[in-house]
Amino acid sequence: xxxKRRYYTKLICIFFTVTAALGSEYSSSTxxxxxxxxxxxxQTIVSSPEKFRLGFFSPANPINRYVGIWFNNVPGPTxxxxxxxxxxxxxxxxxxxxxxxxxxxxxxGRNNVFWTSNVSTxxxxxxxxxxxxxxxxxxxxxxxxxxxxIVWQSFDHPSNVFLPNMxxxxxxxxxxxxxxxxxxxxxxxxxxxxxxxxxDPTGIPQSIxxxxxxxxxxxxxxxxxxxxxNGFRILTNNTAGSVYLTLDYSEERNIxxxxxxxxxxxxxxxxxxxxxxxxxxxWSAKYSKCDIYDRCGTFGSCNALDSSICSCLRGFVPKSxxxxxxxxxxxxxxxxxxxxxxxxxxxxxGGDEKNVSRSTISGGKxxxxxFLKLENMKVPDxxxxxxxxxxxxxxxxxxxxxxxxxxxxxxxxxxMWWSRDLVDVQRFGNLSQAGVELYIKVAHxxxxxxxxxxxxxxxxxxxxxxxxSLCTFFCWRRC
Length: 479
Ligand SMILES: *[C@@H]1O[C@H](CO)[C@@H](O)[C@H](O)[C@H]1NC(C)=O
Ligand SMILES: *[C@@H]1O[C@H](CO)[C@@H](O)[C@H](O)[C@H]1NC(C)=O
Ligand SMILES: *[C@@H]1O[C@H](CO)[C@@H](O)[C@H](O)[C@H]1NC(C)=O
Ligand SMILES: *[C@@H]1O[C@H](CO)[C@@H](O)[C@H](O)[C@H]1NC(C)=O
Ligand SMILES: *[C@@H]1O[C@H](CO)[C@@H](O)[C@H](O)[C@H]1NC(C)=O
Ligand SMILES: *[C@@H]1O[C@H](CO)[C@@H](O)[C@H](O)[C@H]1NC(C)=O
Ligand SMILES: *[C@@H]1O[C@H](CO)[C@@H](O)[C@H](O)[C@H]1NC(C)=O
Ligand SMILES: *[C@@H]1O[C@H](CO)[C@@H](O)[C@H](O)[C@H]1NC(C)=O
Known about the structure:
Blueprint: H1 2-23, E1 29-30, E2 32-34, E3 39-40, E4 44-46, E5 52-57, E6 66-71, E7 79-82, E8 95-98, E9 104-108, E10 112-116, E11 129-132, E12 138-144, E13 147-153, E14 161-162, E15 167-171, E16 180-185, E17 189-200, E18 206-214, E19 217-223, E20 233-237, E21 242-246, E22 257-261, E23 267-273, E24 278-284, E25 300-302, E26 310-312, E27 316-318, H2 321-325, E28 333-335, E29 341-343, E30 355-357, H3 358-362, E31 370-378, E32 384-386, H4 391-400, E33 406-410, E34 414-418, E35 425-427, E36 436-442, H5 453-463, H6 465-478
Parallel strand pairs: 1-4, 25-35
Antiparallel strand pairs: 2-11, 3-8, 4-5, 5-6, 6-7, 8-9, 9-10, 11-12, 12-13, 14-22, 15-21, 16-17, 17-18, 18-19, 20-21, 22-23, 23-24, 25-26, 27-28, 29-30, 31-35, 31-36, 32-34, 33-34, 33-36
Helix pairs in contact: 5-6
């Protein structure tokens, strides 16, 4: 304990030394921007305690200047927020001040507005002031009749960094949605990059990274695990129709940390290591090749430890053997044996009965479908919430409902099930990525067949010897 305390005291000393050294770069610093107090040139404002600093900075390209927030005690600067990311200043001019309308504005030249907080403020704006909080949040406050209200805050308009105590909201009713947007170049260019991190509020809420690098189309690039949020918390307010993603902030936890959405679509948690004087990666979204969304196609499963990372889920075969054997997994897999219980709302006959057993159609006596249990899995995307209080009830209900294709039960999340084609499934080879047990519904004939010998004989008869050798090849690769 004593040692630890001494260590911390030492750390704090180092912090102050660094602060003092860095401080000399800046001509003056204040706590507020007010009607009487603007900043320009090398002037800055600092938070109290002095964890963050706001001022003008230039990334590698020294012509472009931005107003931003960075860690006060870290050389760099390590920027966590940028005001005028789309509209850089081109020279050393520029003043950040409270404008006539009470907004925080960045102006240069003949009152050209480069950036504004752009909120409607009350007419009594003489009392607006901006302050940088210890969390790194820049807030614009208005004092009306002696009471202060926050009218704008930078945490509501994040750049490419998520900081503890930031809250992300998605509102299904109002359409309000906050996103983090990558820089075009994580080091040098703060303008909008290809990726956003957002919250997907449908089903069981999860965070996702979207890739916007395809024109108007956007694609999922990564998604979190609904059962393991790496310290993040997701809160739901059903009355308001909103879902929040947040990360708790603790003043006592004297750690400088940040989550950065990089320009190549990774979301990386780093902590400042004072001894090594560098940011150290603690966690990252793209942990393995399998973390890229939908790596193995529909009904495929990815395992980063396998030499060929993609395989079909048990009971499924590649849709196209040719593509699959060339390492093109995008076509995914298809069911080898149809389920007895098929969901006919998928328009076979347009009948009004939802769940029909094939045995009743054909009049035959087929045995009931069952589940294959897969362990340590990342659950598929498009999860729905099932109403069940236990794992047994969850699987039973899934079995009884023909539209349910798979289910899983997690103590914290409850019963999850899937009625759409299963995508983005992963088997964790590494125990540090805690997966869950996933139950996949398959036809009776697929149950208990360990090596699937029968199947290959049938295939052989139907398709011929050439395919057989391919199958055997795959079976050999997989087993
Ligand atoms: C601004 O400065 C004027 C005088 O220069 C002073 O009377 C006023 O109180 C100041 N306002 C604030 C908010 O500091
Ligand atoms: C301010 O916001 C309004 C809409 O809320 C928008 O039309 C306008 O372009 C914005 N102005 C600036 C300078 O960003
Ligand atoms: C502020 O106080 C004045 C008089 O006390 C009152 O007329 C006015 O409505 C108040 N404004 C607000 C926004 O509360
Ligand atoms: C974190 O944010 C909440 C509001 O979302 C606020 O009430 C709280 O004071 C903040 N914590 C710190 C340490 O600033
Ligand atoms: C964005 O995506 C497009 C298309 O994939 C790519 O050409 C471009 O280089 C990407 N931009 C960045 C900054 O990565
Ligand atoms: C949920 O939203 C409603 C309406 O905006 C609000 O009145 C209520 O306080 C919120 N509940 C919680 C727990 O935040
Ligand atoms: C992979 O297969 C898909 C069809 O499943 C096809 O559209 C695509 O062009 C193929 N990609 C390559 C690189 O061959
Ligand atoms: C199902 O049938 C409805 C109406 O009969 C039609 O609008 C819909 O496109 C069909 N869906 C599929 C997947 O075929």
